[in-house]
Amino acid sequence: MKRFRGLPKEQRECFEKIAAGARFRHHPRTLAILEHKGLIEFETMTVKFPGRLGSITATLPYVPIPIHMEWCAWCAENVEVESDETDNKPSLWDWLCSDD
Asked: For FRET with 76, which of 20, 35, 47, 87 sits at 20 to 30 Å CA-CA?
């Protein structure tokens, strides 16, 4: 897919962590670029505590379902094995950047 072309390593790693469900802090500029490219979206969640404890609101990034499905399909096709054969397999980004 063309929208993945030219993504620096930091942005690719950020996307993969979000797609895998990891909740790490990412640089706001990296998140803004991924959002602009349509690779992630944001969800605002509010947790209300009982009594006078109030609530907390957090905005978290997530990968939209169509993009996540493409990522999962690639992962299913490129399962790591214990031999040296994995060195010859295309990367996630090679697969997503293909014009097929």
From this structure: 35
- What does pLDDT average to over the chain? 80
Which range marks the domain in which residue 73 is found? 2-78+85-97
Put simply, whether the predicted model's pTM sits higher than 0.85 gets the answer no
HSE-CB at 46 with a 13 A cutoff on CA atoms is 3
How many domains is the chain partitioned into structurally?
1
- Planar angle of CA 98, 40, 26, nearest 5 degrees: 110
Give the integer Cα–Cα distance in Å for 56 and 41.
20
Length of the chain: 100
- CA dist 59 and 57 (Å) reads 7
